[in-house]
Design brief:
- With 429 residues, this protein is of the alpha/beta class.
- The chain has 2 domains: 4-171, 3-Layer(aba) Sandwich (Rossmann fold), CATH 3.40.50.300; 177-423, no CATH class.
- Helix content is 38%, strand content 20%.
- The protein contains 17 helices and 15 strands.
- The chain has helices at 4-11, 41-47, 67-78, 93-96, 102-112, 131-138, 157-162, 177-187, 193-199, 211-233, 239-251, 259-267, 275-287, 317-320, 330-344, 381-389, 420-423, and strands at residues 20-21, 24-25, 56-60, 85-89, 118-123, 143-149, 167-171, 255-256, 291-298, 303-313, 348-354, 357-365, 368-374, 399-404, 415-419.
- Strands 8-10-9-11-12-13-14-15 form an 8-stranded mixed beta sheet. Strands 4-5-6-3-7 form a 5-stranded parallel beta sheet, with helices on one face. A two-stranded antiparallel ribbon has the order 1-2.
- Helix 5 runs parallel beside helix 6.
- The longest helix is centred in the middle third of the chain and has 23 residues, at 211-233.
- It is globular and about 70 Å long.
- 34% of the residues are buried.
Length: 429
């Protein structure tokens, strides 16, 4: 149920866009009351120290992960001390149809701002032609600028080179388990660990009561942000080839990446596909924050090995919706979940090669580092030996951790076993 206090406060907040641009009227745009959503303090507390800064605040992440809600929650905080706020959502046709380029946006801001410091919030700004120029210009004046976008190019290329030292970036992700538990409590629901392992943490799915409705939403989300958006954005002509590659990659989360193996798979359905094309399509998926590649860390060279990487999905639902007959890949999804949770906790994460034996993660934060092995279960002797032997010959300077879905504690004198249900509620290792 909506918190009545938050709802009342937010109802009072509106941003008027009732001026004209090139003689076209932009209808009054009211920021809607906060949707049924928990306060995502984990992210907001990172942004809060920069509210008054002239640095551009860039909030990025995969579409539908909650960036807009976080921005609205920031606006709500700002509105307690000022009404000099302008919010523009460039996914709204009322906005994008009338503000089509940088000059129009700058003129509009100048016409509508009030005296004193003005706070600008631009949602999905990358859809505006010349958005980089608009941001570079506006930051020179008395504005505090917040922007969101669902494309990693916001943080690459000439824009960030020119803004070196003049922006700060924040990556937002779908819900991790602690957030799901808190959100579902607000909704009067419960969610199991298994549900999280299968269907992940896109916030809006929890608004739907039935598994069928949730599945329908996630499939439509996949069609929109994974397939159609990318085909349109990058003008992909070989649509069937692209879809085949995407399906293969997203089913293969938490596995070693090999362009040649992908090519071999694609050749089963298509006559030809170059490694360059594969790499290009993979780049599109990474730019949209749909996948992430993780490099292997070599203890011998003490550096990343660029030729070896594993791929993880932004959300495990991308794997599960591609599984037939409810044969879900819980083993690889569990590893993917642990990866996402470690990133949320603030760790830098690598794959670690221990003299030919892979350890799933080397997680580092500050001066602390942890070797982390992930398995669905080590109840069987063969699995126990395989997972625990991966830690052999490692020094004792870093803690060794194994995370499984077992209820029994398998800790030893040198390896700490953490049950998955406990790990998911931890703030740090």
């Amino acid at each position: 149920m909506l918190n009545e206090q938050i709802s009342t406060q937010f109802k009072n907040l509106s941003v008027e866009l009732n001026k004209t641009v090139d003689d076209k009227e932009i209808l009054q745009y009211n920021i809607v009351e906060v949707m049924k959503m928990i306060q995502r303090e984990h992210y907001i507390e990172q942004v809060r120290p920069f509210y008054e800064s002239d640095l551009i605040k860039i909030i990025t992440g995969i579409r539908r992960c909650g960036k807009s809600v976080i921005m609205e929650q920031i606006i709500k905080e700002m509105a307690e001390k000022t009404d000099n706020i302008i919010y523009l959502n460039f996914e709204d046709k009322k906005v994008s149809a009338n503000l089509t380029n940088a000059d129009q946006l700058i003129s509009y801001i100048e016409e509508n701002k009030k005296d004193g410091k003005c706070y600008l919030f631009f949602d999905e700004i990358q859809t505006l032609d010349g958005w980089q120029d608009a941001c570079k210009t506006l930051r020179l004046y008395n504005y505090s600028l917040f922007i969101t976008g669902s494309n990693s190019k916001l943080l690459s290329g000439e824009f960030t080179k020119e803004l070196s030292g003049r922006y700060v970036a924040f990556r937002v992700r779908p819900f991790i388990y602690k957030e799901i538990v808190e959100y579902c409590k607000e909704l009067g629901k419960e969610v199991s660990v298994t549900d999280y392992l299968v269907w992940g943490g896109f916030p809006k799915r929890f608004e739907f009561d039935s598994p069928e409705a949730q599945s329908r939403y996630l499939n439509d989300l996949d069609d929109t942000i994974v397939i159609n958006d990318l085909i349109r954005r990058y003008k992909i002509r070989k649509e069937s080839l692209f879809k085949s590659l995407v399906n293969f990659i997203l089913r293969s989360n938490s596995r070693i990446f090999s362009a040649s193996s992908i090519r071999d798979y694609i050749k089963q359905e298509h006559t030809s596909c170059s490694v360059n094309t594969i790499m290009k399509y993979l780049g599109y998926l990474e730019e949209a924050y749909i996948i992430e590649s993780v490099k292997q860390y070599s203890p011998k060279t003490k550096k990343e090995l660029s030729y070896y990487s594993k791929i993880y999905n932004a959300d495990v639902c991308f794997n599960s919706i591609r599984c037939m007959n409810n044969r879900f890949d819980l083993t690889h999804n569990l590893e993917n979940i642990v990866y996402n949770e470690l990133l949320y906790m603030g760790y830098e994460v690598y794959v670690y090669n221990n003299n030919g034996k892979e350890i799933d993660f080397l997680a580092t934060k500050g001066t602390k580092q942890y070797y982390v092995q992930v398995a669905y279960s080590v109840a069987e002797e063969k699995a126990y030996q395989r997972e625990f032997n991966a830690f052999r010959n490692l020094d004792n300077l870093s803690q060794k951790i194994i995370i499984t879905n077992d209820d029994i504690d398998y800790s030893t004198s040198v390896v700490k076993h953490i049950k998955l249900k406990d790990f998911l509620m931890m703030e740090s290792l």
